[in-house]
Amino acid sequence: MLNTLARVYKRWLAVSGYVSGLIVLVMAAITIIDIVGRATGWYSILGIYEMSQALMVWVVFVGIAYAHHLGSNIRSETISQRVGPKTRDIILLVSLLIGLFVFISVFYTNTAFTSLSIVRHEILAGIPRPTPVWPIKIAIPFGVFFLLIQFTIDIVQMVRRWMRRG
Q1: How far apart are CA 136 and CA 98, in angstroms?
Q2: How many Cβ atoms are within 10 Å of 54's Cβ, its own excluded?
Q3: Which residues contact 123 (CB under 8 A, 6 or more apart)?
Q4: Contact status, residue 125 vs residue 101, Cβ threshold 8 Å
């Protein structure tokens, strides 16, 4: 059962990475269309800048757990390169625990902000049609949820590894 969940989760991470990349391609395409339109004498397409901002939120937060899974998140190795493996593991565990608690707070806060956005019917300024803000805001707790799962998996794997070593 646990192995099946792990496989499904890894597939989800891969899909989220591809979705994040696809969103980047969409952002590039609409930006190029806007630039070409302006250069050829057409008018700028209304809402392109705002749409790119909204899509950037999705790029970052849909792909954040995948990036962490791959070890691609920013990491300072100034201290960890100068200590032994056991101390390095302790530093990693402490940083994962701090990250877990920080992102639990981010998840909780942004879930509340997203709910408030839905209740208040917030709309995005700068786009010709009234566009709700909540589809943008929901990307944050959505992505952070999977990052919290990844942090938890990393912590459990690290503790298991230590227990096997003795």
Answers
A1: 26
A2: 20
A3: 130, 131, 132, 133
A4: no
Question: By three-state DSSP, how is residue 77 classified?
Answer: coil
Structure tokens that stand for 16 in this block: 């989220």
One pLDDT digit (tens) per residue for the chain, 166 residues: 667 877 888 899 989 989 999 999 999 999 998 888 888 887 777 778 888 888 999 999 998 888 888 877 666 666 767 888 888 888 889 999 999 999 999 999 999 999 999 999 998 876 777 888 999 999 999 999 999 999 998 898 889 888 888 6
- The string over 130-144, giving b where at least 16 C-beta atoms fall within 10 Å of a residue's C-beta and e elsewhere, is ebebbebbbbbbbbb
